[in-house]
Write a structure and sequence with these properties.
With 355 residues, the chain is α+β, with helices and mostly antiparallel strands. It contains twelve helices and ten strands. The chain is globular and about 65 Å long.
Length: 355
């Protein structure tokens, strides 16, 4: 399978991964044949890329550190938290704790797999998908930093609920397609305080978990919010969630901008280490991310365009690739593969679309 921009999906192509809404309902199931009439409907939902099966991606399978079913269960658990808050004005996190245990087990079982973040987000499901991703990325980073299971779980609860305060922000502000006014942005910033106050009322949530909701927008140089904490005065759990939060936001399509490819998002985070982010946290974070995810396109220094077939955790910038187009941009009849860990005079210069 491979990821492809929706404009390049041909009628009859086989969809390789479910497209799911915020309630965990399948909008388009894996195995469905794509119809041209789907394109505009999917774009309105904020979906601009799909995973498909075709001849050039034959045999390429994407294995992520956390199963798709587990991600779906996490989204459903978050929906229950939101519903309980709106209907009963209280929060129960039993279901959240259960799914976080499951995520930790899967992360530790698959510790040699780089995170591909292969989920497809709709505009409506963005908030929940984003929270699940921040949770997964934060716990992976924590494990890399030597956290035990209890500390990792404590961080995971805070990370998956880090944006819960947005339930108190008007939807017309949260979903505004254009730039926010100063007053609107000041209101959005309050979600950190709202979230902290909401979580502090829950007896089963620790101070650290609640603090993650409060401080995930603090920055290492003191320019963040709401407390303008600096450096090690920011608890490490919040420093971890801060990196995960920014990375997932950058690599997601939003109403007002297109997503950044993972390699560019990681370059951004690396560039702002010491200013916005903790070096040790960034180092652990990057060690677990697929810079060039399996099933995506890359351009080589030779001018050839390829699909990523396999990643190596020990050498994340040098995956195995399948050459689809030659240096003159001619599509090959017989594709072949190059292991960049063995061909050191060839390197990736950027990600690209393969159509």
């Amino acid at each position: 399978m491979r990821k492809i921009h929706i404009n390049n999906v041909r009628s009859g192509a086989i969809i390789a991964k479910h497209i799911i809404d915020q309630n965990g309902r399948i909008l388009l199931a894996a195995g469905t044949k794509f119809k041209n009439s789907y394109a505009n409907k999917l774009k309105k939902l904020g979906i601009f890329e799909l995973y498909i099966y075709d001849d050039m991606s034959e045999g390429i399978e994407i294995t992520d550190a956390v199963k798709e079913q587990t991600r779906m269960e996490a989204r459903v658990a978050l929906q229950k938290v939101a519903d309980d808050h709106m209907i009963k004005d209280k929060i129960s996190i039993d279901q959240v704790r259960s799914v976080i245990d499951k995520i930790i087990d899967e992360l530790t079982e698959n510790n040699d797999i780089l995170v591909n973040l292969c989920d497809i987000k709709t505009y409506d499901s963005y908030t929940f998908d984003h929270s699940v991703n921040v949770c997964i990325l934060s716990m992976l980073t924590a494990i890399g930093l030597g956290y035990n299971k209890e500390r990792t779980k404590e961080l995971g609860v805070g990370a998956i609920l880090h944006d819960i305060g947005k339930l108190k922000i008007p939807l017309k502000i949260l979903n505004k397609p254009g730039r926010l006014t100063h007053d609107e942005f000041e209101e959005v910033k309050k979600h950190t305080i709202y979230g902290y106050e909401m979580l502090k009322k829950v007896d089963s949530i620790s101070n650290i978990s609640a603090y993650v909701a409060l401080a995930h927008h603090e920055r290492y140089n003191g320019t963040g919010y709401p407390l303008k904490k600096k450096g090690k005065d920011i608890h490490q759990s919040a420093r971890i969630a801060a990196v995960s939060d920014v990375y997932d936001a950058l690599t997601s399509n939003r109403v007002y901008r297109k997503r950044m490819p993972p390699n560019q998002a990681l370059e951004y985070i690396s560039a702002f280490t010491y200013q916005y982010f903790d070096y040790d946290v960034v180092k652990s974070f990057i060690n677990n991310i697929a810079i060039y995810p399996v099933g995506t396109g890359v351009e080589l220094s030779t001018g050839e365009k390829c699909l990523v077939v396999k990643n190596y955790k020990s050498m994340p910038t040098r995956p195995m690739v399948r050459v689809i187009y030659d240096s003159n941009n001619n599509k090959l009849k017989d594709f072949y593969e190059i292991d960049l860990t063995k061909k050191l005079n060839v390197f990736i210069i950027n990600s690209c679309d393969i159509d």
